[in-house]
Structure formats: C-alpha cells, structure tokens
C-alpha cells in the first residue's frame, strides 16, 4: 500500500470490475510491526516511525481516498450496507498490558487509529 503505482492499479482494477455497482465494503488490514520495533523511546528512530506510519496509515488512507467514488456508488444503492473498516491489532492499543511501560512506539503511534 505504500506504492502510489500499486494503489493506482488497485483503483483502476476496481473501477473496471465494479463500475455501476460500487464497492460495498473496504477492509483496511494492511500493517506491519517490524521485528526491530523499538523497545523504548530511547531506541526509536525516525526511519522506523516513517516506514511504519507509511504502511499502517498513509497507504491505507490514500487507497481509501482512491476508492471513494466506488464507495459512494454503493452507498447510493444501499445506504445502510456500505462500510469502511480499518483494522488494528491488540498491540495497537495503548492499554495493552505488554506495552503499558513503553516500547513499540513506531507501531503503536498508528496501530490505534
């Protein structure tokens, strides 16, 4: 989801396949929690933050933006049956016990959007 050309290809494919019908449900479930995930604030790097944010938030958000015309078509046909779902894991929760003392800042900053 971080590649603009890949997102454009998905949007183009969906526009061809779903023209006139629309997209009833979009599930954003892209995400990474790198093995090098920071253990504490002292170890987090800008590179980690940018990569994780690009994969877990920016990419899915821009893909959703690209598919909005199809989502609107579906919503016009079935107003109560069109959904956008953005998934996260338990680790994205700031209340998750494992991370209450800190760590995984690069993942957690976008895991609970």
Keywords:
2 strands, 48% helix, 113 residues, mainly alpha, two-stranded parallel ribbon
Distance separating the two termini: 17 Å
Order of helices and strands: HEHEH
Tell me the major beta sheet.
2 strands, parallel
Helix content: 40-55%
Write the layout of secondary structure elements.
Layout: H1 4-18, E1 25-28, H2 46-77, E2 83-86, H3 105-111
Parallel strand pairs: 1-2
Helix pairs in contact: 1-2, 2-3
How would you sum up this structure, described in words?
Helix 1 (4-18) runs parallel beside helix 2 and helix 2 runs parallel beside helix 3. The chain has a two-stranded parallel sheet with strand order 1-2. The protein has 3 helices and 2 strands, in the order αβαβα. Helix 2 links the parallel strand 1 (25-28) and strand 2 (83-86). The protein is mostly helical.
Summarize the model shown.
This protein has 113 residues and is mainly alpha-helical. The protein has helices spanning 4-18, 46-77, 105-111; strands spanning 25-28, 83-86.
